[in-house]
Amino acid sequence: MKRIVAGQRRKWKLSAFDCVNVLLMLMLLVVTLYPFLNTLAVSFNQATDTVLGSNFIWPRKFTTLNYTNLFEDNTIYNAFFISVSRTVIGTITSLFCTAMLAYTISRKEYFLRRQISFLFIFTMYFSGGLIPGYMLIKNLHMNGTFWVYIIPGLIGAFNLIVMRSFMEGLPGSVVESAQIDGANHFTIFLKIVFPLSMPVLATVALFVAVGQWNSWFDTFLYNSSKQDLSTLQYELMKKLQSASMSVSGNAETLFSNSDNQQANIVTPTSIRAAITIVAAVPIIVIYPFLQRYFVHGLTLGGVKE
User: What parts of the sequence cross the membrane (predicted)?
Assistant: First the structure.
C-alpha cells in the first residue's frame, strides 16, 4: 500500500513538473513569436490604421500597398540578385577556405598551429579599425568591385575556432588509416574530414549566410556609387530613409485626409515592417534545412574522449 501511495506521489510530482514546464515553454513561445507576428500584421495593415497603435497579430485593414510601394522600384530586383549571389558565393568560398585552415591547425604534427590560432583569436579582441580597413581595401583596388563582398570575410576567426574544435574531436584513427594507405593531407581533407564535418559545416554556413545576407554597411562604404553592385539590404535601407523623409507632420495630418487618400498612404512604420519581412523570409526558408545540424555541430566538437 505504501509503495502504491509513493508511486502515485511521484507521478503527481512528475505531472506537476510537466505542467509548469509546458506553461513556461508556452510563455517563451509567445514572447518569441509575437514580435514576428506583429511585424507581419503591420506589413499587411493599412498604414493610417497602424498609427492608431495597440498591439495586434492580424491585419485590421488588409492591404498590399506597403509591398507594392516597396517593389515598384526596379533597382530592388537587381539588388536582390546581387545579395543572393554574394550570399551563395561568399558562403561556399568561406566554408571551403575556413575548413582547410581549420584542418591544418587541428593537426597536432603542424608545429605552427598554436601561433596561427593565437593570431586569429587576437583579431577577435582587437581590430585595425574602420579607417585602416578602408585604406586596405582601397590599396587592394577592390573598391567598386563585387569581390569586396567576398574576400575580406573569407575566413572568420570564430568560425575557424568552431571548425577546429570539431575536427579535433574526429577519430584520429581514421586519418591515420588514410595516411598508411598513402593518402596526402589534401586527399584526407576532401574525402574524409570534409564529409565527416557536415554538421559543423552546416552550422557555420548558417552563420556566414545570415551575415552576408544582412550586410549593407560594406555596400555603403565601398560600392555606394555603383548602382549595379548595390545589395538588397542597402536598397531597403535607402527606401526606409526616403519613406521617413516623405512623411511629415503628425497623426492628425494623416487622418485629415479622406478614406481613399488614407488607403494610399504609407508610413515609415509600415515600410519598416515590410522591409523586415522581406529581409527575414529567405533566412526563415533556409533555416529548417540546417536546423538539425545546428546544435549538433556546435556541441560535438567540445567533447573529448
Answer: 12-37, 76-104, 116-134, 146-167, 188-210, 271-290
Strand, helix or coil at 51? coil
Q: Is residue 305 part of a domain?
A: no
How far apart are the C-alpha atoms of 229 and 148, rounded to whole Å? 10
d(CA 47, CA 52): 9
**Residues 90, 202: one domain?**
yes
Cβ atoms of 277 and 39 closer than 8 Å = yes
- The torsion region of residue 74 among left (phi > 0), alpha (psi -120 to 50) and beta comes to alpha
- Give CA–CA dist 252/133, Å, rounded: 47
Asked if 29 and 141 sit in the same domain, the reply is: no
Residue with cell 563582398: 149
- CA dist., res. 12 & res. 52, Å (int): 48
Q: Taking the model in full, what pTM does it have?
A: 0.77
Residue in this structure with the C-alpha cell 510537466, named with its chain if needed: 18
Same domain, 161 and 96: yes
Looking at the structure, tell me whether residues 93 and 137 fall in a common domain. Answer: yes
Residue 242 lies in a domain: no
DSSP E strand stretches across 198-261: none
Kindly state whether residues 208 and 252 are assigned to the same domain.
no
> Do 16 and 36 share a domain, yes or no?
yes
Output the DSSP codes for 140-162. TT-TTSGGGGTSTTSS-HHHHHH
pLDDT digits (tens, 9 = 90+) for 119-177: 888 888 888 788 888 898 989 889 889 999 999 989 989 999 989 988 888 887 888 88
